[in-house]
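A favour, since you know our structure tokens better than I do. Go ahead and set the record down below.
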Amino acid sequence: MPITEITERKLAEYIEPKIREFHQARAKRLSQLTLQDILLRKNPYLYRAKDIQTAEPFVRNILDAYLSSQEEGMFGGFLEGLAIYVCREVYGGRKSAAAGIDLEFEKDDTYYIVAIKSGPNWGNSQQIARMRDNFNKAKKTLRTNTQRRSIEAVNGCCYGRTLRADRGDYIKLCGQAFWHFISGIETLYVDIIEPLGREAREPNHQVQELYAGLVNKLTRELLEKFCEANGQLDWQKIVEYNSARNLPFLNRHL
């Protein structure tokens, strides 16, 4: 049975400062980014195959791809923390100390160990096998140290859906099913939307200003250092900078 219900006020008290921190982290990352960061980390062949011919679209493409992967990671951490907080408030859940396990709690005479992921399509076969192994090790430790009769493993995904929950040795719950599982509230998956957006507008505007300035700055650098005399992008130089084994002009460029 639930210890208590998670209220709108409690959700807002947790979410709103975390969203401000998320935007602060975005702004900090933008202020630190260099052309070197994104040229070295993104696939130049992809953008050549897309026939990008001008500097600003190239910068926006590689910058957006880089930032998207960074922000997915940061926001995934926030969602994991939110899930643990909600479960702690409702069922007395706690952050697990077991490798690969994020959350532990007891509900209806069953002890649950939970690996939290952002979305349903999070891993390849090796990563899923590793999760299964972590579940089995955690179950073995718990059964050795306690007299708990029933231990269930759950892969909880903060968004999305799955048509098959029962995966044999663990259960996969996504989106509404997962948030209901850790809170007892059917509508929690949509209830968190309002406090997510409440503190977003002003800090996001500041991030967008930083983004626009960075696009202009990186575009200028790209034109100066990776364009031919006729103004066209020098794709050979871009690929060499990204991938060449030895690059004599490396330090002269960035």
Q: What stands out?
A: Residues 9 and 195 are 9 Å apart (CA to CA).
